[in-house]
Design goal:
- The complex is a heterodimer of chains A (316) and B (535).
- Chain A is mainly alpha-helical and 316 residues long.
- Helix content of chain A is 78%, strand content 0%.
- Chain A has helices at residues 2-29, 34-39, 45-54, 61-75, 88-123, 128-142, 145-160, 175-209, 212-219, 224-261, 267-276, 280-308.
- Chain A is globular and about 85 Å long.
- A 5-stranded mixed β-sheet of chain B has the order 15-14-16-13-17. A 4-stranded mixed β-sheet of chain B has the order 1-10-9-8.
- Chain B is globular, with a radius of gyration of 25 Å.
- Classes of the chains: A mainly alpha (316), B alpha+beta (535).
- The interface between A and B is large, with 48 and 48 residues.
Chain lengths: 316, 535
Amino acid sequence: MKRYVFRRLALAVPTLLLVSVIVFALMRFMPGDVVIRMVEGHAYAPTVDALRQELGLDRPAYVQYLEWVGGIVLRGDFGNSYWTRQPIWDEFARRFPVTLELAVLTILVSVVIGIMVGVVSAVRQDSVSDYVCRVFAILALSVPYFGLAVLVVVLPAIYFKWTPLWTYVTFTTSPLQNLSIMIVPALVFGVTRAGPVMRIMRSALLEVLRQDYIRTAWSKGLPERVIVLRHALKNAMIPVISLIGLQMPLYIGGSVIIEAIFRLPGVGLFFFEALTRLDYPVVQSVNLIIAAMVVGLNLAIDLSYAFLDPRIRYGR
Amino acid sequence: MTRHLALAAASVLVLGLALAPDTLAQQPKRGGVLRIADREAPNLDPNLNISFLTQSWSNMIYSQLVRFPHGPEQKNHSDFSVVPDLAEKWEHKSPTVIEFTLRKGVKFHPKPPVNGREVTAEDAKYSIERFRARSAFRARFDVVQSIDAIDRYTLRVTLKEPFAPFLNHLAASTFVPILPREVEEKFKDFNRPEAMIGSGPFMVKSYQKGAQIVFERNPDYYVKGQPYLDAVIIEITPDAAARLSMLRAGKVDMGHMWGFLSAEEASSLKQTNPEMVITPAMTVASSVIYFRTDQPPFNDVRVRRAMSLAIDRKSWNDAILYGEGCIDVGPVPCALTDWKLPATQMDPGKAKYLVAYDPQEAKRLLAEAGFPNGFTVPMHHNPGYTTPWRTIYDLAADNLAKIGVNVDFKPEEYGKYISTTYLGKFEGMALGPQGNGFEIDDWLFSGFYPEQPHNRSHVADAELNKMLLAQRRELDPKKRQAIVHDIQRYLADKAYYVYLPTWPWHITHAPVVKGFKHHDGFSLGYRLMFTWLER
């Protein structure tokens, strides 16, 4: 087990290095010039040259790359934003709890709804409840979360002169107020993410319910509730957990729009604004940090399989 | 007789009573918190970023030497006459030397490390020098030769040559806010809330990044009794639909710092919130087709004239601009009323190339220029601009197709568009908005003089250049205006740009907001200095 973890961690190094190269190169290939974007139409040559020099953009690309990666590895310094001129790590650390909370609440909403609907659908296969649940899943899959978010904000404002938008308050300042602000975006995002969870849950559970040990349980005369919830559900959870792991970058990516619409000062919005402003260091560093988190999370998910299914062993 | 007198007295009384509530309602009232939904400034240092958000937030905090009139002082929203701010008076000692006399007793905000000390000529000198060293707008003051603080209250600016736009640039809330040097010494720059220390109408009370910034009234502001508001809160809201929803729901009094809404947004808001105060205002901006006049086919004036005659401006205005647009755009935007020479006051034979629609004549000109079957031309543009820009691209293509000019659409993402096409780095033709600045020189010299970044059509015209230089060297406003009018007459039939109808923004706020008057530019603090609330 230890060896497995160590090997996975060692593998993470080249992965992240590759991510850093790709993301650095992609930013340089993006059309437009950050310096001219900063001075917009007022691009007088001496101003542009001075700003380019100030930001270190006059040096060769490989020097810029080495300095960026070197700063992270040697000093833990992710650099400064070109636009805000503030340290990226400080901004990231301040904003990350917002995005993390949104992701956790979204996962919670999608998992609770998805599992409940998925279980009902599987247990009552081909019944009216199954069809209703499947229609719900398709609906959740097809409604774009950003469209739903806009509707949730705009429609009550038009019809009731009310809108679910408040000034963000941190969890530590007022947990209740914080949750009341976060619940609507989490519901909007979570409901649309519940579709895939429900679909996977249903098929996984149907498969498990057909296995021999379940038949044995039935023959022992165990009640349905015990068979489904204690014996079948745990094993059927593995693909669902994998799905959540795979969807993690989606939660971060999706938070861009959700945070912008619901006025949440999270990482998604930080990243999006940096991308539109061609703020290279921010896009690179945030990408790298998130890549590191996804790698770590996937490892954690892989390790959780052993807990869920004792038949799984981590070999060499 | 007595009866007549009594009747007259009664009439006066009735009239007085009828007018009284209105008069009383117009009396500014102290107190209250104004809430605004808008985006977040990317940086707080006015010299480190030129974003309108940074500049507008800065204008809440910092004073200037001179400024434009605002609120009841302004004759219209593009009144760019210069009035005193920290400098109570100024005098041209010679065409190149201007001496400013500063007010005595004006104090910076009572915050460390400045602790409410008096603003002096040294601060003004430091601020202009910092602007010239750090700001991306610095080219505006290339003409400055030296700045001297003669004594505590006298500042002398010496220019390399007479430069008419100088005072106007100094009055714009985009260039030289007066900053205290000790703040930079302590914090390295002005890019943090605790470093935002000026002598302006408001002070930063708190700043929660990504959520809200609270500006509170400066109790020691040198204009006694102002500002009227206790505080201004900007609720940071990046999404436009969310901003409008907050305005509809009454969570904010303004859905934009300057109250800007598009015609579509304003009309939709009016349906749900008929109580909102909405005033259309034409801003200093224009919409243009620009092209490589240094390359074929646009180096032929007949082709350019044909392009202009192909545009059916009146139909555009009626169809997509609710009839509110300005058709006579020309090289001087409609809103710059002090400088604009309307097409109606020009030779009709020349003015038609600014405003007329004549596709038959356009086809004839194209044939004469050697394009009887027209041609195909790339049209660079940014599809990301807000409504009605996409419709405008289509309309332009449609109008041009009718004279045989086929448009090959070249959509560009904003970052690319602004870094290349907008600076004249493109082939063929481009279409988009222009917002060069608020001084007539920004539109004429910057728009037509060789090598200037706003000279998007690559104009190089020796005769025009002489006039462009002359207007910026003429210090007498009347004589300068005459040159500016001559330039407009000269440019009318050159068709270096094809001018398209330009539309107003709709300045919108809740009815409780009083005294708020739009003024073009980034002067949020000056606007809110005259604003009060009637809750």
